[in-house]
Amino acid sequence: MRVMTTMTPHSGEAHDAGHAAKLNWLRAGVLGANDGIVSVAGLVMGVAGATAERTPIIIAGVAGIVSGALSMAVGEYVSVSTQLDSEKALLAKEKLELATMPDEELAELTQIYVDKGLDEPLAREVAVQLTEKDALRAHADAELNLDPDDLANPWTAAGASFVSFALGALIPLLAILLPSPSLRVPVTVVAVVIALAITGFVSARIGGAQRGRAVARNVGGGVLAMAITFGVGIAAIDSVGHGEALVTCLVQFAIAIVAGALLIYRETHMASPLLPVDLM
């Protein structure tokens, strides 16, 4: 006697449609925190190299957090809004085609499943059943890789970027303010190295890249940014004096932002996206 069993997904493997999107948001949050760490670390280290007073460091750090978080939020809002407009336009086009040429759309959906390996009769049956259930969803998933009920949300993206940047930026700011002046630099360096090691590990784990290489790249870039800005701060205060402190702060901030942007670019383009496998 043959016993029929119901097949279920592996317990440790997610199959819902929004899983990849959730991983992308998580990875964006980690990279936002990473940018906050590197940017504000470079900024406060540069100011600390120019002065031992707490007030300029606090002002520069808070200004860096606010301006950086707002910049990240606005950038994400604009970027994701453009993505959302594109997704809506594609869905509107698909809805029009389904209304005006249903037979051609059914044939197109059938061919998609044939190309994926199904026999033509079975592909036709699958296409017919999916179309009868929800034609727009079936075509959006197969043709556009979109879920009509789970489109990009610009406000969510902006909020996530703002919060993640601000939380990451608080680490170097608190690390440089809490210790005594003689311990500010070493404590900040240690705190930033640990934070960057964590964000590098998490981003590599999410992206499926080699964790050791990602951590080394992340920490190395952050330490280099801090070293450059700290050195520029010392050189600036020795050469131009206290009257140019504001200009010096702006220079440090610009250098830190560039360093953070380079780190995010490298993490984004050098890690294999969304391949949750253990490589180390």
pLDDT < 50 runs, ≥5 residues: 1-7, 9-17, 265-280
Distance between the termini: 46 Å
User: What's the helix count?
Assistant: 8
The percent range for strand residues is under 5%
Describe the structure.
There is one protein chain. The chain is mainly α and 280 residues long. 79% of the residues lie in helices and 0% in strands. It has helices spanning 19-50, 54-100, 102-115, 120-144, 154-177, 184-207, 211-240, 245-270. Mean pLDDT is 76; it is low at 1-7, 9-17 and 265-280.
Keywords summarizing the entry:
280 residues; mainly alpha; 79% helix; elongated
Helix/strand layout:
Blueprint (H helix, E strand, L loop, with lengths): L18 H32 L3 H47 L1 H14 L4 H25 L9 H24 L6 H24 L3 H30 L4 H26 L10
Helix pairs in contact: 1-2, 1-5, 1-6, 1-7, 1-8, 2-3, 2-4, 2-5, 3-4, 5-6, 6-7, 7-8
Summarize this entry quickly.
This protein has 280 residues and is mostly helical. The protein has 8 helices and no strands. The chain has helices at residues 19-50, 54-100, 102-115, 120-144, 154-177, 184-207, 211-240, 245-270.
